[in-house]
Design brief:
single chain; alpha/beta; Nucleotidyltransferase, domain 5; Rossmann fold; 4 domains
């Protein structure tokens, strides 16, 4: 097939002129630390977009090839193929001094990194670019952003899906077309430095079995240990640390690597009295015993309370307090529907109570027009659940299906305008993309660097009074809306949507929560996730997922770095143990800037990479906050739900993490 057409030439795009290495791998599974590469293809392009060289090969993985129905690579077909270490040098030479490009680039990069590590070689990649992330920025009018859909949209012929070489050739056509679209929108490329900020050995810790019992609280002097207590150890011990931990786990205790206000007991000998953990225990009032006392206590550990199983009808997830309710104060219970065993509790703050040295959170400010509204996708939404998209006056939604970019104005003015946009049925954009249908110009917006592109694209430009009596623009050429055929719920802050249950016999999707913001020159933003039990605590430290530990041991939550202005948390809900009740996703700013400086953050939830979002929300009410609770997935009876939260905190990530039971600064 032709790798170049006059329409796809990129020789004139000087800002995007790099040496590229387009990569695709077919694998025996989805977990890079465990599964193997079955076939690999590399196609190199010069700065002008012209093809330079291509290479592809099948590989003998030395293991079961996995889902043959997807990739078609049987053990017989792979027999006699080279092993990865035999071709690693050839692949490395093609990747050297080039930007690695792939569709879902972190997947391909991670698999290559593990294969190179197994071969005891260095993966020579310093930067990567994800065409999926780039297309999310361009936002073309397509039903989804899978490789096949984008190929059809950009007019690239695809002959053999899931064939590494053909997929790489298809990717080349998509990539060149997307670069031209990005140039037309003046979008910066989402380049990601490599290796990512994670374990350089590419060897996450082996899975840790979650404790089966709830934390009963602090140990009290002369009392027994109780199953589920959170125990931390610091300093040298006479008994080997491994044996001490093994005996504790066998007794039903929950061994932690850090100390927080949720820690039940710290074990330390006198020589470790000045450790970070010991100082934290003293500050939080955590009881401390020496090793010999602890060993005596281990002889008689009392029975604990098992985690709830999440049976249908058991409502456990917290919801935001009604407007005007104190963040940490009592709230009126929601009415109990007839099919539930008890009312859903109100919002419970994930940070410390007032007596602790952690600032209280600000409750989400849900506009009055949103309260109690539903979309039909939220059966049984109670007074505490602001379900679905907001409505305008008397339920009129004149901007339904539109996507509006707000430029200019002070931060409060722009935030208020975006809130009104959502009330009128539209989605508020954070960046200029192909899906933007209208531009709202506030004071100073005419000086925005994107105005020239907006004029070239002939987008309708409105001023503030438009929001009082809006009219939707006429359809674009061809009679199609710029937003294409994709439909997703637009949620206000506090808005909730049920995640659909897959059909019987169908695999459950891996849900992706993607946060995106305008590119920043003055700060970095990190997205993190906490896997929480019914007591709003992490079961163990490794259930805090962040840039330094981008995957929890069970592999049920992964952080995907798709670019400097977009990060994704992938969640495998079907694999969670019963004790997991909620996954909280937050963002934190590194340094002194605040989310008031950053502006709007868009959050979307999708049933898989490249899938159309089920729902999206634009969160932009933050001002002085440095940490923002973006969204959560939580159990409600037999269902999982997604909530757009948008709750800010003036303190940093370390304080938020301590509130959930983990200290990221411990020794």
């Amino acid at each position: 097939m032709s790798l170049r057409t006059p329409e796809s030439a990129v020789s004139s795009l000087r800002d995007y002129a790099f040496d590229w290495a387009l990569v695709d791998v077919e694998t025996s599974g989805l977990v890079a630390r465990r599964d193997r590469v079955l076939s690999v293809a590399v196609l190199t392009l010069g700065p002008d977009g012209e093809p330079v060289e291509e290479f592809s090969t099948l590989l003998d993985p030395g293991c079961d090839p996995g889902p043959v129905h997807i990739h078609g690579l049987t053990a017989e077909r792979l027999r006699g193929a080279p092993t990865f270490d035999q071709v690693a040098g050839r692949i490395g030479a093609l990747l050297q001094d080039r930007v690695l490009v792939a569709h879902n680039a972190q997947f391909d990069y991670d698999f290559l990194a593990h294969e190179f590590a197994r071969a005891r070689l260095f993966l020579p990649v310093s930067r990567r670019l994800c065409t999926l992330a780039l297309n999310r920025q361009v936002d073309p009018p397509t039903n989804d952003m899978t490789l096949g859909t984008l190929a059809a949209h950009y007019g690239v012929r695809q002959t053999r899906a899931h064939d590494a070489l053909d997929d790489t050739r298809v990717l080349a056509g998509i990539f060149r077309a997307t670069l031209r679209e990005a140039a037309g929108l003046d979008l910066p490329l989402p380049l990601v430095p490599c290796p990512p900020r994670q374990d350089p050995q590419f060897a996450p810790n082996p899975p840790k079995t979650p404790c089966a019992y709830r934390n009963p609280g602090r140990w009290w002097t002369a009392g027994p240990l109780v199953q589920g207590m959170k125990i931390a150890i610091t300093g040298e011990t006479e008994t080997s640390r491994a044996e001490l931990v093994a005996r504790s786990v066998a007794a039903g205790l929950n061994m932690m690597a850090s100390v927080s206000r949720h820690t039940s007991l710290l074990v330390t000998n006198a020589s470790a009295a000045n450790s970070t953990k010991a100082r934290r225990a003293a500050a939080e009032g955590v009881p401390v015993v020496d090793e010999h006392t602890y060993l005596r206590l281990l002889r008689d550990v009392r029975a604990g309370t098992p985690h709830r199983t999440g049976a249908p009808g058991a409502v456990t997830a917290p919801v935001p307090a009604p407007e005007g309710t104190a963040a940490n104060g009592p709230a009126a219970p929601a009415p109990a529907p007839a099919d539930r065993t008890r009312p859903e509790p109100e919002w419970e703050s994930p940070v410390a109570p007032p007596e602790a040295a952690v600032p209280a959170p600000r409750p989400p400010e849900v506009p009055a027009t949103e309260s109690g509204t539903g979309t039909g996708t939220e059966p049984g939404a109670g007074a505490g659940d602001k379900a679905g998209a907001g409505s305008g006056s008397a339920g009129v939604r004149p901007l339904a299906g539109r996507r509006v970019l707000v430029l200019g104005g002070t931060h409060p003015e722009a935030a208020a305008a975006r809130t009104r946009v959502v009330e009128l049925g539209a989605s508020a954009a954070v960046n200029l993309s192909r899906s933007v249908t209208d531009v709202l110009l506030l004071s100073g917006g005419e000086r925005d660097r994107r105005i020239r592109r907006i004029t070239e694209l002939e987008l309708p430009v409105h001023h503030a009074p438009w929001l009082d009596a809006p009219t939707a623009a006429a359809p674009t050429e061809g009679g199609e809306s710029r937003t294409g055929t994709r439909a997703s719920s637009v949620l206000p802050r506090g808005g909730v949507v049920d995640l659909p249950v897959p059909p019987l016999g169908s695999p459950a999707p891996t849900w992706h929560i993607t946060a995106a913001w305008a590119p920043q020159d003055h700060c970095e933003i990190d997205v993190v996730a906490f896997v929480l039990d019914e007591d709003e605590q992490v079961s163990f430290d490794e259930d805090f997922v962040f840039y330094g530990a981008p995957e929890n041991p069970a592999g049920t939550v992964r952080l995907l770095s798709d670019g400097p202005a977009e990060q994704t948390v992938a969640v495998d809900l079907a694999a969670f143990p019963p004790g997991c009740r909620r996954i909280a996703v937050a963002a934190a700013i590194d340094g002194t800037p605040t989310f008031g400086d950053v502006g709007a953050v868009q959050v979307a939830v999708s049933p898989g990479l490249g899938a159309a979002p089920l729902a999206r929300a634009t969160l932009d009410a933050a001002t002085t906050e440095r940490t923002l609770l973006l969204a959560e997935l939580y159990r409600r009876g037999a269902l999982w739900r997604f909530r757009a939260v948008g709750q800010g905190y003036d303190h940093g990530l370390d304080a938020l993490a301590r509130g959930y039971g983990v200290d990221i600064a411990d020794d």
